[in-house]
Amino acid sequence: MHREYFSVPEADAWVNHAFTLRLARTGRTLEVPADRSATDVLAQAGIKVDTKCSDGLCGVCATPYDASASGEVEHRDFVLGSQERTHKIILCCSRPKAAGGSLVVDL
Asked: What angle (nearest 5°) sits at the alpha carbon of residue 56, between those of residues 51 and 58?
């Protein structure tokens, strides 16, 4: 089945929390404030991550992550299936569920 969205679908009322983003390849740690996305913080730090929609619709910023080393994740995207969510995250919109959580990505 193929799905296309032309606007962001109705979504839950998410609460954003600040979190720590750890880059597994370099060991670098970045703090992501509640009002910013991981892709925004990565770009500001000079780390290029391809983005397109920034709403979780296209999947361009899908990145492998370490679920066992990360906190519980709110997958807020509309593109990943349940199997993909066990090892990938959409960086522009998804984040840890808990305040002060962490996310370990393969960057």
From this structure: 60
Q: Which CATH number applies to 19-105: 3.30.9.10, 3.10.20.30, 2.60.40.420, 3.40.50.2300? A: 3.10.20.30
pLDDT, tens digit, 9 for 90 and up, residues 47-85: 999 999 888 889 999 999 999 999 999 999 989 999 999
Domain boundaries, the chain: 19-105
- Closest by Cα among 85, 100, 107, 98 to 39: 107
DSSP strand pairing (95-96 vs 73-74): antiparallel
